[in-house]
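Example 3.
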Amino acid sequence: MTKPGSHAEREGSQAELIRRSLKRRYRKERRFRLYGITAIFIALFSLVILFTDIISKGYTGFIKTTVTLEVHLDGELMYLNDAADPEQIAMADFQAPIIKAMQAYFPEASSRADMRELSRMTGSYASNQVRDLLKENPDWLGTTRTIEFPAHDTVSVYVKHAGDPGYSIRLTEQQQRWTDELLSKGVIDTGFNDVFFTSGDSREPSNAGILGALVGSLLTMGITLVIAFPVGVAAAIYLEEFAPSNRLTDFIEVNINNLAAVPSIIFGLLGLAVFIGLFGMPRSVPVVGGLVLALMTLPTIIISSRAAIKSVPPSIREAAEGIGASKMQVVLHHVLPLAMPGMLTGSIIGMAQALGETAPLLLIGMVAFIVEIPDGFFSSATVLPVQIFIWAGSAEQGFVELASAGIMVLLAFLITMNAFAIWLRKRLERRW
Amino acid sequence: MSISMSPAETTIEEGKTVGIPFSDDPKFHLRNVEVFYGESPAIKNISLDIARNEVIAFIGPSGCGKSTFLRCLNRMNDSIESCQIKGSLLLDGQDIYDPKRDVVELRARVGMVFQKPNPFPKSIYDNVAYGPRIHGLANRKSDLDDIVENSLRKAGLWNEVKDRLDAMATGMSGGQQQRLCIARAIAVSPEVVLMDEPCSALDPIATARIEELIAELSESYTIVIVTHSMQQAARVSNRTAYFHLGHLVEVNDTSKVFTMPEHELTESYITGRFG
């Protein structure tokens, strides 16, 4: 204690010091908040750019261009007098009636060159469509039917993207004139692309659809979830609750953490060597894809599940033990339900990763061109990201917009999956 | 400070407890108990009897080992890997730490109430019914209902919660939660209830309720209570044990401990010179 005067003086100067430091602290705080807001703004801005780009490029993928023609199914023209005879069906010319129907609008186009150009207004599989219709309805032979054909890829690009610098128009002058005229007559029309959602892949963009990949992704994810979730949760419970802490468990823990950081393509190599090479499982099937992705997802699930178990308050554990609950009962009745939301969150992150994974699937052959929609875990399939990958690398211009549309479907799938997980978590939390 | 700490350095003799540590009809028969956390000893050679249907209070400064000792009585220290227990601990003449002993059965007989109220995040009913359910004490729903009602009545909670048994236990006040934890502990009809500072997280009114409850429960249960409050020890217990740095310094009738302590360390503590 010194003299009271100096004490008061010191008090005054200290208050001044605090005031000054306060100002500095507040400035720091404001700056820090500004950094945060900027970061969020940048993130949102990038997201907006990403979405606008994908949607503006891809929405045309949901629009199809069709050519609707009155086709006279003339037997003589097709060299066909009995549509029920498979031999005749195999030999017949189904392109002729389509060209004939087009010529109804352009009678002047009668040279070989003109007819070839006319035939390239409808999709490459238009004649197959006529054949299939006749196979199903042999009595249609000789009648006139209204048939809706997908337009040829080049026509579709012209209709949807004329004037867009990103696309080059590959129609001849004459074809462009024809297209314009047919458009004005309503023969060529655009509509919602149901084909995209109801069919598998195709060499022809107007016939290609995402359904095959969607089903493939569903099947693969199903296998991944069924294997990775129980195994991951069980491993986490054992390591966290029952395992003695010794060198072996330390070693296991380090390895799990390392596995989480292993590039996914390594898991593809492992799948190729073990599941296909050693066990002789077929290539390109959802089972193998699911197994590989499950291996890839396991470390993520184990790590997050262990964190969730660790975060269960010890007081709950003690409470249960204090009443005389056995170890198993403590885990099953108390720890697991409380840790479940956290475990689900981790699993969903892992599953989302797996859903977007391409590299390991390329190695086990899920990159094949597959037209049929897979009908089981052992039928050849591809998955959404691989399908997008295939389309993005295809030559036909129509596939560009399909790739973007595919990305939108993938995002929608992901959002649905996450929404389901959040709903599930909320429900579990409410129960408790 | 150095003056008041001086007794601690002077007069503790290991294994020597003044007062009346033994009883003719012990529920717990504890001899030469030593507890180690790794290398460091937490309990140093303690011998004590806990009589049938008595309320015994453990008091002492922080870190003196009273909670550790309490948790030895129903093997709650088992989950701490570094914890080692030596000596003879008998419950009704049977070794608590016998490797063949079923710890689940032991804990059903020796219930525990913890420092912080820790109800399960379930309904009030499910909290109380949990113990009877896992031990299979009730075969019918009506039996279970009876157990729940009786336990809640004994814990003095029935009138407050009888209309909302389905409500979440975590939504109750702290005092109610602690009484629920007591109801949960006595629902499995234990012979002993261990209480580890049951009132330290509660306000004075809730504390008074719990103390009343302990007085009522003492008729049918043996109660061991660890407390930081000497007034509480004085109010609820028959005997009081004073712990100091892992030693059991003095055990005596509560009235004697707080009026005429035999040991000078006990006297220093209860007169507030340290602790």
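The two ends of chain A are 59 Å apart (CA to CA). The mean pLDDT of chain A is 89.
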